[in-house]
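We now fix the convention by which a protein and its fold are recorded. The integers have meaning only within a learned vocabulary of local backbone shapes. The record below shows the convention in full.
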Amino acid sequence: MISIRDVAKMAGVSPSTVSRVMNGTAKVNEEKRQRVLNVIKETGFKPNETARSLYKKSARIIGVILPNIQNPFFNGMAQAIEEEAYSRGYRLMLCNSDNNLEKEKNNIDLLSRMNADGIILLTNQDGIRETIEKCKVPVVILDREVKADNQVACIRSDHYKGGRLAAEHLVRCGCRKIVNMRGDQALSSARDRFEGYLEICRKYEMAPCYIDCRYSFREGLKKTEEILKLYPDVDGIIAGNDMVAMSVYKVLSKKGYRVPEDVQIIGYDNISLSELMTPELTTIAQPISDMGRASARALIDYVEQKSNEDNYHFDVELIQRDTTIMKEGGSRK
């Protein structure tokens, strides 16, 4: 395997000159530069990336830690991050924490030891703050609020508004027994959505009805069964995300409920599957791609010592489709 010293010998220059040519760190005599480039082309020489990262203290790698790689919402985020990072000359290392705190901590430690330039973290863990604060590389928090001392940016959408929009929409669709399948209240996003729902309950003097449900399809199946036992007169369901909303529809249709005539359903996120299912799913849309790209930009700008924002707040919107029916006089997107 050819080394940088071999290239230098063949080009009749020093190893440091080869390094300067490859990295563009200093001016090199044009004749020498061409000799080096010709040898590199002839030999197909490629530098040892590990050695380069140790020397430059940069691997040009961004670590992305996801809580659940099976959820299309996180896949969409990861794709947007990769596209933005690639356009800036960085590669991605994807880690799946499986909603496991210890695995998440180990992933952060691994990426730090690998000399990653930074980490973009999507977490469902309330106990991760201490690990973030001990991390030796910059961290961007995406879709959650952690408030760790050394996080360089927080990218999230207006979950409080999302909770209000979902509940208000079902009220305007004529629902009076609206059950909220709220997410883990240790998460800022889930808390904000639930608070938005409670505001609408107060506005219309409705008794809050809710059940705790993790953001997974299987959990949604089980919790929908519980809803039908606890709230047999339910006529509207706010799911924690689109995957849960799909499981709600599956249970209801199997039991003979008509959607939206008997029970109306609204999801959250607007993943691609929400428009592909039949009936198409009414949902609250988060700008998934915009948020992913913003997280990559914020991290890379920080690494490259360019000016950057430290707090990105994205808007959300209601997308009405076929699992809800707007009352006469309402509007449809």
User: Anything to note?
Assistant: The mean pLDDT is 89.
